[in-house]
Amino acid sequence: MDIVIGIDIGGTKTKIGLVDKEGNCLEQTFFRTKEYPDLDNYQNKIKTMVDELIGELRETPNILGCGIGAPNASSKRGTIENAANLLWKGTVPFLEKMREKMPMPMRIMNDASAAALGEMLFGRGKDMTDFIAITLGTGFGAGIVANGHLIDGYDGFAGELGHVDMTIGDGRLTGLGVEGGLEAYVSATGLKRTILYMQSQFMDESRFRSIAYKDLHGEDITKAAEEGDPIAIRAFDYTAKIMAQALANFTAFTQPEAFILMGGLVNSGKWILEPLERYLDQFLLQVYRGKVKILESGMEGKTAAICGAAALIWENHR
């Protein structure tokens, strides 16, 4: 049985899985990224968990390689460079050190670009030549496919759309210090910040007035919206409007057939998706209206990022 190890390095969690040729995640696990600030300890933890996953399979697999998706990862150099939501700063020779611990074919790529590749192989992008995959987790990531090819960029850093300034000054700082940057508004973290902003702007009664920022969770905001909490509903609308402005701008570059969304914020369902579609139609240039779809990932939600990482290896075994 041929399998590929898929690793998704997130600011909150590191997810690991074993993925077959059809994009099925046979086994999976995770651990909290920030509990391992030392790179060697972190990579040793990955190896230990990979060995445990392999041991859970009924038969000994043929491991074709390991694909890794990570923020600010250069596919050309095998490095992670100045990632906003990771503890390792500067230029980290991640692939070189990981190969020492797990000698096998290995590739690393920006996590959102890996997700786009996963959609091409296993998900909604199978029959598309032009789409943009958007990851909405701790930050905001984008993987761009145009004319049937993933746009990787000169140095492997194409698609850093989360740090595009959406306010033209006087805005929130992203993790990379960009004033008014998109991910500071449109991400799981951005939604929490917007809850505080909405409480300062409006006098509506809300459950969040008695909850500290560190105790705020995305699923709680969704539940509050479902129960009619006005601050939660305003926060989703505000988030969707800014995201729609950004997607309308991105459409002018490559005219994607669809934006394919994945990540924790997408779990909010209609509270983010319905206003997003409404505002996108409003902001798109007339020539694009009615031609751009908003889709949820075709890969299973909890394993989409893992399968995207595994696609880096499966791409060469089709």
Kindly describe this structure.
The protein is 35% helix and 21% strand. The strands form three sheets. The protein has a five-stranded mixed β-sheet. It has a five-stranded mixed β-sheet with strand order 11-10-9-12-13, with helices on one face. Strands 5-6-7 form a three-stranded antiparallel β-sheet. The protein folds into two domains: 2-120 and 301-317, Nucleotidyltransferase, domain 5, CATH 3.30.420; 125-296, ATPase, nucleotide binding domain (Nucleotidyltransferase, domain 5). Strand 9 (131-136) and strand 10 form a beta hairpin. The model has no long low-confidence stretch (mean pLDDT 93). The protein is globular and about 60 Å long. With 318 residues, it is of the alpha/beta class. Helix 1 (39-55) crosses helix 2 (94-101), helix 4 (188-201) packs across helix 6 and helix 6 (230-254) crosses helix 7.
